[in-house]
Amino acid sequence: MDANVKFSSRAHGYPVRRTVAGMATARWNDTIIASSDDTVVVEGNHYFPLESVSATLVETSTTSVCPWKGTASYYSVEVDGKTNADAAWFYPTPKDAAAEIKGKVAFWKGVVVTD
Length: 115
Description:
Layout: E1 5-9, E2 15-19, E3 24-28, E4 31-36, E5 40-42, E6 45-49, E7 56-66, E8 70-79, E9 82-90, E10 104-107, E11 112-114
Antiparallel strand pairs: 1-2, 2-5, 3-4, 3-11, 5-6, 6-10, 7-8, 8-9, 9-10
């Protein structure tokens, strides 16, 4: 096991991984839009601290529901005049099982995340 990563399991059965050393980076349109050494990985998605995001995020009306995390809200990502609609999501009030992702945002829709 990588010494730089701590693992914990929750009652929901999904592994939660917090990166404690090393940098995770999110990139869209050849631009780094987020970078942090304090991400939480849930179901394969890096959740970045909101303050680590350098792109403009515009909240949309889109929502989705996860039975164990709660209701997700979405942001469109804006970089250099281009918009990637609903490319980021977050849980404003996550359920207790997902408390580690409060204040964090994850990406998809062509955003490439590396660690």
